[in-house]
Specification:
With 315 residues, this protein is an alpha/beta fold. Strand 1 and strand 2 form a beta hairpin.
Length: 315
């Protein structure tokens, strides 16, 4: 492990394990927050457990906290690493570097610093294109890939400008979030309205607990850099799309599990991954919306355990 890790302060307060509300019983006995300095970026990760490494990459507008309900069970079989992406939570928020190639390189540097040469990887929502980029750009690092609930810019067909009302309610942010400045101006001071509507519209019939939504929103409203960081992935979509045009010429050969919520992306995730990978298993979780790790943790844990079993047993 990089010796510089020991000299960094211990993360505390809101955003860290010690400051996160309503964690599963015993969570803090297994998991701790830490900073990892990988050179040009200080990253916040939550680590714990024993076994082969499993890297979890959250979605928008969430943090590592999205995985909290799965992490204790996963830690019985894996060394779990749940990261705050560049621009999010307690990780650094530089002005640039939000294309998926750079975001993937961040995670490779993180796993290097933690001493993990090869690992399993799960990315959801914006974490899905980041995880895809990591697997495509660094095929020697990823053993098995799990993805859920996102398109791949430059690979998936772009949605049309005019959509049915329910679908428009869920997807209109894809264009809004890419705006260079006016989105921040409109959302500042109205974070509860904007992000509350986003969580609600994408949840389907099973809404997230109000206290979890409030925690995410309070993090985003904490200072202007948090809000800016939440939009930067979307502003870099043109660069990511251009990168994916090249990546799709190098099809993934590793095993991939593609997951969709029945009340959200459904079969779309599997269909997307089949455009880029040869060995794709698919799953649609009934009664689940977009927030799969929080809406269907037991169902998700069961399928993850089965899919990752060959990786766990081989290492």
């Amino acid at each position: 492990m990089n010796s510089s890790v020991a000299r960094l302060p211990t993360p505390g307060g809101s955003g860290s394990v010690s400051g996160a509300p309503h964690l599963p019983k015993g969570f803090t006995d297994t998991f701790t927050s830490r900073y990892i300095d990988t050179g040009d970026l200080r990253q916040h990760v939550v680590t714990g457990g024993e076994g082969p490494p499993l890297l979890l990459v959250h979605g928008w507008p969430q943090t590592w906290y999205a995985w909290r309900m799965l992490m204790p069970a996963l830690a019985r079989d894996f060394s779990v690493v749940a990261v705050d992406q560049r621009g999010i939570g307690l990780s650094g928020k530089p002005q640039d570097g939000y294309d998926t190639g750079t975001l993937a390189n961040d995670l490779v540097a993180l796993m290097d610093a933690l001493g993990h040469q090869r690992f399993a990887l799960y990315g959801t929502d914006v974490g899905m294109p980041i995880a895809y980029a990591l697997a495509a750009d660094h095929p020697d690092r990823v053993d098995r890939l799990v993805v859920s609930e996102a398109p791949l810019p430059g690979i998936s067909p772009s949605p049309p400008l005019f959509l049915p009302p329910l679908l428009n309610e869920r997807l209109w942010h894809l264009a809004f979030n890419q705006l260079p400045k006016v989105n921040e101006q409109l959302v500042t001071g109205r974070e509860e309205i904007f992000f509350g509507a986003e969580f609600d519209a994408s949840a389907g019939t099973k809404k997230l607990p109000a206290d979890a939504v409030r925690y995410y929103i309070e993090t985003l409203a904490a200072d202007p850099d948090h809000l800016r960081g939440s939009f930067e992935f979307y502003r870099a979509i043109p660069a990511t799309s251009a990168q994916n045009e090249q990546r799709k010429t190098r099809r993934l050969t590793l095993p991939v599990l593609a997951i969709g919520g029945a009340e959200s992306s459904g079969e779309g995730v599997g269909n997307t991954m089949k455009l880029a990978a040869d060995d794709v298993q698919t799953l649609v979780i009934p009664g689940c919306g977009h927030w799969v790790a929080e809406q269907a943790p037991e169902e998700l844990l069961a399928v993850l355990t089965a899919f990752l079993a060959p990786y766990r047993e081989s290492t």
